[in-house]
């Protein structure tokens, strides 16, 4: 059976090797006669997987020793709430840099918590009036010097807008939503106080969320909250405060082991940059037909968004691509157009096939 070329935005393509490993081990994990899902999360068989997943994250992302690596539940959306709950004190304030739909959501969850606690949440800058066509740089932003943290989104999955380099917005601790570009390229963890990412794009299945946070920042978090919403409690319990999503974490481990085998972050980054360059080259070579709304320096290497001359042609494009085995190319319903998500597991030859399909589509219909 030939697997479809999967360009879904998330949940997204997973490395075939990680899935095959899961298939091979499904009924009999590590010679125990039962699946990993059926093991106690307090037993040594599962704990080995858990610890390996955490260690691989640390190794692949080169996480400094004074940072905690956590695996939590509730998706990135839960982090939209947990960040202000932990770090925005009553009467305090936090800054949000809004570069697309996801940072908008993060901000509105911050607002909800601020409203309940008499704190303030500010939009330090918004790209909305620009149609979210570029990232916002430190020069665009009005910061509150006393902010408890500044929040930004490294890659906007819907708008296809990505920071080429991690920005520095003043001296407040930086909190970054990296859901759609974690593990896709090298970055310096020590520039950030807290990173969070839903796993379902680059690192595993949905239901698993990775958080990487500087220990002294975690310690500063509010202590009068239920333990389940305190980062501190999860860190102390090594992400085993309650029953974790063991099968999801097992799959995450498989994906991370695959990533390491591929050569780690540098090799994945090279591959990802090449894949994106192939698609942007076709878009730029046909300016009368394809249009990428994103400014060149803010173009995402993970989510390539573009428009065709008409919505009818876009629909035909998506339908024909599907018939040729390419899935998930429809843009997010809120913005329309086309989106090709090029996460780690997306094979370079799928991208070449898509590029050839795009060129051919122009020839036939342009
Ligand atoms: N942030 C970003 C950048 C995302 O792409 C997404 C999901 N597409 C989310 C947050 C929300 O993630 P979840 O559905 O895991 O809550």
CATH architecture of the largest domain: 3-Layer(aba) Sandwich
Please state the structural category: alpha/beta
In terms of DSSP E residues, the strand content is 5-15%
Ligand species: 4'-deoxy-4'-aminopyridoxal-5'-phosphate
Look at the structure and give the CATH class of the largest domain. Alpha Beta
What count of structural domains? 2
Going across the biggest sheet, name each strand in turn. 2-10-9-8-5-3-4
Rg from Cα: 21 Å
- What low-confidence regions span 5 or more consecutive residues with pLDDT below 50? none
Task: Estimate the mean pLDDT confidence.
Answer: 97
Helix segment count? 10
- Give the helix proportion (percent range): 25-40%
Largest sheet: 7 strands, mixed
Main attributes of the structure:
binds 4'-deoxy-4'-aminopyridoxal-5'-phosphate, Aspartate Aminotransferase, domain 2, Aspartate Aminotransferase, domain 1, alpha/beta, two-stranded parallel ribbon, 2 domains, 366 residues
Q: Can you walk me through this structure?
A:
The chain is α/β, with parallel strands linked by helices and 366 residues long. The protein folds into 2 domains: 17-261, Type I PLP-dependent aspartate aminotransferase-like (Major domain) (Aspartate Aminotransferase, domain 2), CATH 3.40.640.10; 264-365, Aspartate Aminotransferase, domain 1 (Alpha-Beta Complex). Helices cover 38% and strands 15% of the residues. The strands form 4 sheets. The protein has a 7-stranded mixed β-sheet with strand order 2-10-9-8-5-3-4, sandwiched between helices. The protein has a two-stranded parallel ribbon with strand order 1-12. The protein is globular. The model has no long low-confidence stretch (mean pLDDT 97). The chain binds 4'-deoxy-4'-aminopyridoxal-5'-phosphate. 4'-deoxy-4'-aminopyridoxal-5'-phosphate is lined by residues 10, 75-77, 102, 153, 157, 177, 179-180, 198. Residues 10, 75-77, 102, 153, 157, 177, 179-180, 198 line the site of 4'-deoxy-4'-aminopyridoxal-5'-phosphate (PMP).
């Amino acid at each position: 059976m030939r697997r479809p070329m999967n360009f879904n935005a998330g949940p997204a393509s997973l490395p075939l090797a990680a899935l095959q490993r899961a298939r091979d081990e499904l009924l009999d994990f590590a010679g125990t006669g039962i699946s990993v899902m059926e093991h106690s999360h307090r037993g040594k068989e599962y704990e080995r997987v858990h610890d390996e997943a955490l260690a691989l994250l640390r190794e692949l992302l080169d996480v400094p020793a004074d940072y905690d690596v956590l695996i939590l539940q509730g998706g990135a959306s839960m982090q939209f709430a947990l960040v202000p709950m932990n770090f925005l004190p009553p009467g305090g304030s936090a800054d949000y840099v809004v570069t697309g739909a996801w940072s908008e959501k993060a901000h509105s969850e911050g607002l909800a918590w601020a409203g309940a606690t008499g704190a303030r949440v500010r939009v330090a800058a918004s790209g909305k009036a620009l149609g979210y066509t570029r990232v916002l740089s430190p020069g665009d932003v009005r910061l509150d010097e006393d902010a408890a943290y500044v929040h930004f989104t490294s890659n906007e999955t819907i708008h296809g807008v990505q920071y080429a380099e991690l920005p520095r917005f003043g001296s407040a601790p930086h909190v970054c939503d990296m859901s759609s570009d974690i593990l896709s390229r090298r970055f310096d963890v020590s520039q950030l106080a807290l990173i969070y990412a839903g796993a379902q794009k680059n690192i595993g299945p949905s239901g698993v969320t990775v958080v990487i946070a500087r220990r002294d920042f975690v310690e500063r978090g509010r202590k009068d909250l239920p333990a389940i919403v305190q980062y501190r409690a999860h860190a102390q319990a090594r992400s085993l405060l309650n029953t974790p999503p063991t099968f999801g974490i097992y799959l995450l481990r498989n994906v991370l082991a695959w990533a390491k085998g591929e050569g780690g972050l540098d090799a994945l980054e090279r591959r990802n940059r090449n894949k994106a360059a192939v698609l942007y080259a076709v878009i730029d070579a046909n300016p009368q037909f394809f249009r990428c709304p994103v400014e060149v320096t803010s173009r995402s290497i993970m989510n390539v968004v573009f428009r065709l001359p008409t919505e009818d042609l876009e629909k035909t494009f998506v339908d024909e691509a599907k018939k040729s085995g390419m899935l998930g190319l429809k843009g997010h319903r809120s913005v329309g157009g086309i989106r090709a998500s090029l996460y780690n597991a997306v094979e370079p030859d799928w991208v070449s096939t898509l590029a050839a399909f795009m060129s051919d589509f122009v020839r036939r219909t342009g």
